[in-house]
Amino acid sequence: MRKTILFVLLTLFFLIHTKAQNPVKLSGTIIGTSESFNYNTYSCSSTVNTIANAFDGNLQTIFATCIRTGGWVGLDLGEKHIITTVAYCPRASHAYRMLLGVFEGANNPDFGDAIPLHLIDKSPAENVLTSKDVSCSKGFRYVRYIGPNDFKCNLSEIEFYGYKGEGDDSQLSQITNLPSVVIHTKNAEDVVIKDLYLKGIVSIISDNGTKNHTDSLEIKGRGNASWGFPKKPYRMKLYNKASLLDLPAKEKSWTLINNYGDKTLMRNLLAFDLSKRLELAYTPAGKPVDVFLNGEYKGTYQLCDQIEVKTGRIEVEKMATTDISLPNLSGGYLLEMDAYAYQEVSWFTSARNKIPTTIKYPKDDEIVPTQSAYIESYFNTMESAVYSAGYTNTTTGYRKYLDIPSFLRHFLVGEISGNTDTYWSTYMYKKRNDDLFYFGPVWDFDIAFENDSRTYPINSKTNWIYLSGSTANGVRDLVNRLFSDPSLVSQLKSTYAYYRDHGIISKESLLGVVDDYATEMDQSQSLNFMRWNTLNTKVHENPVAWGSYTAEVNNVKNYISARIDWIDNKLTYVPNAINNTSLSKVYLWTSQNTLHIEGISGEVYIRIYDMSGQMMAAKQHADPHYSISMKPGFYVVIISDKTDKSVSLKGLIKRDAAMGN
What we know:
The protein is α+β, with helices and mostly antiparallel strands. Among the domains are: 24-164, Jelly Rolls (Sandwich); 328-501, no CATH class; 507-570, no CATH class; 577-659, Immunoglobulin-like (Sandwich), CATH 2.60.40.3080. The protein is built from 9 helices and 27 strands. It has helices spanning 2-21, 267-277, 369-386, 404-417, 475-483, 486-501, 507-520, 522-531, 549-570, and strands at residues 24-25, 29-32, 72-89, 102-106, 115-119, 130-133, 139-146, 157-164, 180-185, 198-206, 211-221, 234-242, 251-257, 286-293, 296-305, 333-338, 347-349, 356-361, 425-430, 437-439, 587-591, 594-598, 604-610, 615-621, 625-629, 633-640, 646-653. Strands 1, 2, 3, 4, 5, 6, 7 and 8 form an 8-stranded antiparallel beta sheet that branches. The chain has a 7-stranded mixed beta barrel with strand order 9-10-11-12-13-15-14. Helix 2 (267-277) packs antiparallel against helix 4 (404-417) and helix 7 (507-520) packs antiparallel against helix 9.
């Protein structure tokens, strides 16, 4: 008897559960844009704008809004439902006006928490409903279709299918293989200025829809020239710190880079890869994403670090308003030699070259006059050393104030990428109780990699690209002065040779990165160029409109391959030249906090770096043996001979037993 009752109960549960899971065509209260229209203000037909037409089952009636962008129509289902299918039919002869239209689900009546259910990526057939499955386990009370930009939400019919249920976040719709960044501002207000934050909600859907990070945020515009493009860049400030998409920094501020003039959508990411290869202390983290703003698909963007002094970003000592005397007054600072500095609040021009320089940190509302005066004076001291009579002196010249390894690596990123803006905007930072200015991070490469009509074709030139590119006032002359020191040119050659000899910089590896990004962004780039039809049009500084995404990518690949040859020739690089020189007999050993170099033949130039890239010692030496006392740690030693050929050695100096662990 008990078994019979249990069987009946299980059967009933199965039948009820099956019925609940059986999708049906959904109905509810019709909602949409036209409810708020004043027909005395807008020249609209009330027949055309009758939202009921979207749900009347008649494929000959239509719904279109008065406003060109942001129009929508949907249902209040009364309670949460799992949406399994959407169906739609375009207005006759207007199928293209549904392309990139978005279906959304939400649980707030203003759709402030909405996420995409489906994006229309092909013009639908006319006079018939097109059905698309939805892969989303979350339940929604409110559902809608929101029309694409500038098309007045033209449609004939839409339908939603599903079943009642709270659902969960275990599987959400991710429009392409890239993460979806979905932002809704309060009252769906558009982001139209750079200086005003709008409040809203962001959802970042990733890992094939199995992860969702949601938070309140503020969003505003950003950028200089890039802000003038139709596809806008944005800055997000989260309510809570987060490591978005597992990027290194756990912070509130993030950027969405638009890459409008970069039709490969990857030039910044390629430059960041170069920065990592060349071991700059900090490289901005970034990943390609799809962006939706207030229900509108905005295109392929790059979610990226905000350049700021924070853990996991630029790590210099934090300053307080009470830090007005040494040693605390000495740092940390973040500066930008910046052609746009005059637009900023906290900036100065240098004494000699009149270099416009923005003080990025301490922030405008935190820095005090003593700090501003100190860093301006110290920058001028550095500049004076560069132009002094004894500027090449390793103790009192420019090397006393400039970290040369970071300068050279920063320079190589700019030159390998062919970035004409390298010295238009150049970040530098200074640590506390440290005399040196460090170069980096690298930033802004949308016109690099052969994408600037003013310097195209780059590899036909005989001189470095920075000599032809745009620079902030006085910066080009500063760089020229530095490279008038033969020892710096020698060090540039040996630095480049190290990364070439070790295969870190090679055609194969760099072209592989291009191919990987092209594959990763293939789905998204197709949608991006539906939204922004620029492949056959020259925009920004494009020298050529290559006509397809594949051709744009091939242009970058051809440039990189030729550029490596160009720099090899410019720096007289000979692969593995060390094997044919007397330097091949040099070896290194360590003992009791001392680093020893043996086998030196003839005069050589020895440079010793710690693992942060800071030069610890530089010495011209002609004896077979060289020793130097060093603190415990791991060091890289680069030894160059008079032919500018070099060898790189590594050594670990262990802590003495008497010193403890």
